[in-house]
Amino acid sequence: MTLVTRRVDERRHQAADSPRGTTARVARRAQASPAAYAFLTIVLLASAFPLWWSFVIGSKDAAALNTGEVSLLPGGNFLENASTVISTLPFWKALGNSIIVSTVVSGLVVLLSTLAGFAFAKLRFRGREGLLLFVIATMCVPTQLGVVPLFIVMAKLGWIGGLWAVILPALVNAFGVFWMTQYLRESLPDELVEAARVDGASTLRIFWNVALPAARPGAAMLGLFTFIATWTNFFWPFIVLEPGNPTLPVALQQLQAAYYVDYSLVLAGVVLAAIPLLIVFVFAGRQLVSGIMQGAVKG
């Protein structure tokens, strides 16, 4: 693969010497205006307010909520409410199920979507554009329309109540295929693919050694978004999983009684469920920003 490596180095040097590379370096040195910082601060506060409000409500007790007084300051009962949530629900089992389902689904969605995106973006076969259009058109079909036939299939396979009933239907993602197709069309030059073919590489090796490294920022974004969507998914797991084997959103639903809802407990559970997502954001934030910036430059 020496020819491919040499082509990559040549393109990097050309990009650094090109006007676009000069413009990018100048843009990195540019300072944002105070108005931009003010706008971003407002957006940040507006985005963080729902989580802060959940923490405020989750740190109070039912008596304080019934007074009707509005306060943005938290109370002192969050640890007690969190302990009640953990002891009332199968919390640790639900947390483990959510971690397993979200990790497996996001990893396989990234792999399968990148494979399909590479095929649609760089391989030539009859009906390619029509098939891609069909995949995109499936995004217009509401999820609720497929619940009954999908439940029947899961029942015939004997998977009702198990995690495979949640994992397998989510492995094919039309948005992921479309996203990776567009990303690889822009980020992977045809010259690299042709150079790898001339060097004797098979299609699978071209995907693994050439396409996958080029798709890493876009794949990181797709993996992060898929992880969040799977972690917060309630509709299908609520239908197909048993009460004793839930994911975290389904387990939190058990906090709602028939005639009375203690919102301090419910929102304390919501904050506990959001903590793993915040941890994922901290570790994946750099790849997320890198993917967004690369997509913006190539667009």
What do you see in this structure?
It is built from 16 helices and no strands. It has 299 residues and is an all-alpha fold. About 5% of the residues have low confidence. Helix 6 packs across helix 10.
The total of helices stands at 16
Q: How is the main sheet built? A: none
Tell the overall outline: globular
Helix content: over 70%
Distance between the termini: 29 Å
What is the strand tally?
Answer: 0
* Secondary-structure element string: HHHHHHHHHHHHHHHH
SS-based structural class? mainly alpha
Q: Estimate the mean pLDDT confidence.
A: 83
Strand composition percent: under 5%
Round the Cα radius of gyration to an integer and report it: 24 Å
- Contiguous uncertain segments of 5+ residues: 15-30
A few lines on this structure:
This protein has helices spanning 2-17, 19-29, 34-58, 62-66, 78-88, 91-122, 128-137, 147-157, 164-167, 174-187, 190-198, 203-214, 216-231, 235-240, 248-253, 263-298. It has 299 residues and is mainly α.
